[in-house]
Amino acid sequence: MSSISAQGVVERASAELSKRINGLGLSRGKHHSSKGSVMERVTNVFCGNSSAVQAPEKPSRLLPASRKPAPTLIRRSCKPLQPVYHTWEQLMVDEKFLAKFFLYFSPCERCVLAQVCLRWRDVLYRSPRYWTGLVPVLQCRELRGFQVTERARLYSSLLRRGFHSLCLMGATNEDALDMINTFPLASKHIHTLKLQCSSIGDQGLESLMEHLQALYELDLAGCNEITEQGLWQCLHPRIVSLTLTDCINVADEAVGAVAQLLPALYEFQLQAYHVTDQALGYFSPKQGCSLGVLRLHSCWEITNHGVVNIVHSLPNLTVLSLSGCSKITDDGVELIAENLQKLRSLDLSWCPRITDAALEYIACDLNQLEELTLDRCVHVTDIGIGYISTMLSLQSLYLRWCSQIRDFGLQHLCGMRNLQVLSLAGCPLLTSNGLSSLIQLRHLHELELTNCPGASRELFDYLKEHLPRCLVIE
């Protein structure tokens, strides 16, 4: 956010304004100055046309002078006239104009625009729609240098903008207690809390969980002071989404706490190097009804035995990621394909033991799969791509750095008429001739070809010409 230049955003604001008034014309009438004409036209573009008062009709020459029609009173609706601005300064502080003008910018750019003046800030802070998709990140080290009243104003501005998510960077137990005291309304308005690279301990996390009564999504990343015992004390049944990433003390017992204390859990994401197959054995049919998304990243100790526990306890999964679980083999994928047939998304990236046989199991049994990720599966060949090409429901396919895929495999992909996203980044054996055949994928929305030796400038131009609706990432 800080990398955005204020001057650049203001320049873009000027460009957007020029674009909107382009073609309106600068007519020089006898009774209207050119400046007034432009201001009225710009106001009409952004604020709506005003109801102009019609001039009275001229008397008809065909009627006799002695039989002129009696004048009639016409009732006109008394609509307020649109104010006419004679200077740009007046227009740029009109709230109705600004409310539509700010819609032409991204949420990140609006953060800079809010610093132009108090009027712009008030208009932007008044409507939550300007901030959709943003998560405020508070650097606790900087917050410690603020006065208490300044921190209170900051938290108040978050509520004015309709934020329900909050990320604390570098938080300690003292920072957690300060937020509880300075931001009492967070108990009802904060639904998502992220703690990143923080030295907050079990006591601080427990205090936050007690204070944030509306919280249902928790994300802990790089919180090395939080222990498994602390998770047993802090986790509340209202949590439906939990992410534990790179927390050094998280191991099998932490997964046990998740399985026992969160019966309504829908999404669970875990990155922990010390988690074993035993941890996945803590899940029971109690979670099978609610848990739909399970992402296990770089869990190096998980084997096919852990997959057995997953498919037996969590039969209703729709999203499964085993990215970086390097001990998973084709047999584990066969178990997944046979038992988790509701899957919509499957991620097997960085699983070096996966071969074409695993792709045959996927193609035969996972008929509802829409997204498949096979990045760095170095043993996948054109034969496996042939199996995948028979999957009619597949919409997104990621094959980054699959080093054995050749042009022959691309010929199979060209028959996948429903494919919308395709990544072939880093595939070294593909040539321009093979890649040019991808123009047959008329429904493609995104094509990634970064680090492909066979891709040339001529190829990119050719693809963009024949796939005008597709974003080609070079």
In short:
The protein has helices spanning 6-21, 34-47, 88-91, 95-101, 107-113, 118-126, 140-143, 148-160, 173-182, 186-189, 202-211, 228-234, 252-261, 277-280, 285-288, 304-313, 330-339, 356-365, 382-388, 407-413, 432-436, 457-466, and strands at residues 137-139, 165-169, 192-196, 217-221, 241-245, 267-271, 293-297, 319-321, 345-347, 371-373, 396-398, 421-423, 446-448, 471-473.
Q: What's the overall average pLDDT, rounded?
A: 86
Q: Main sheet?
A: 14 strands, parallel
Instruction: Estimate the global geometry from the Cα principal axes.
Output: flat
Poorly predicted runs are 23-39, 49-66
**How far is it from the N-terminal to the C-terminal residue, by CA?**
25 Å
Protein name: F-box/LRR-repeat protein 15-like leucin rich repeat domain-containing protein
InterPro entries: F-box-like_dom_sf, FBXL15_LRR, Leu-rich_rpt, Leu-rich_rpt_Cys-con_subtyp, LRR_dom_sf
Pfam families: DUF7885 (PF25372), LRR_6 (PF13516)
Organism: Ceutorhynchus assimilis (cabbage seed weevil)
Please, could you describe this protein's structure?
This is F-box/LRR-repeat protein 15-like leucin rich repeat domain-containing protein. Residues 316-387 form the F-box/LRR-repeat protein 15-like leucin rich repeat domain. InterPro entries: F-box-like_dom_sf (IPR036047), FBXL15_LRR (IPR057207), Leu-rich_rpt (IPR001611), Leu-rich_rpt_Cys-con_subtyp (IPR006553), LRR_dom_sf (IPR032675). It holds the Pfam family DUF7885. Keywords: Ubl conjugation pathway. By secondary structure, this protein is an alpha/beta fold. Helices cover 38% and strands 11% of the residues. It is built from 22 helices and 14 strands. It has helices at residues 6-21, 34-47, 88-91, 95-101, 107-113, 118-126, 140-143, 148-160, 173-182, 186-189, 202-211, 228-234, 252-261, 277-280, 285-288, 304-313, 330-339, 356-365, 382-388, 407-413, 432-436, 457-466; strands spanning 137-139, 165-169, 192-196, 217-221, 241-245, 267-271, 293-297, 319-321, 345-347, 371-373, 396-398, 421-423, 446-448, 471-473. It has a 14-stranded parallel sheet. Strand 11 (396-398), helix 20 and strand 12 (421-423) form a beta-alpha-beta unit. Helix 11 packs parallel to helix 12 (228-234) and helix 12 (228-234) packs parallel to helix 13. The radius of gyration is 31 Å and the shape is flat.
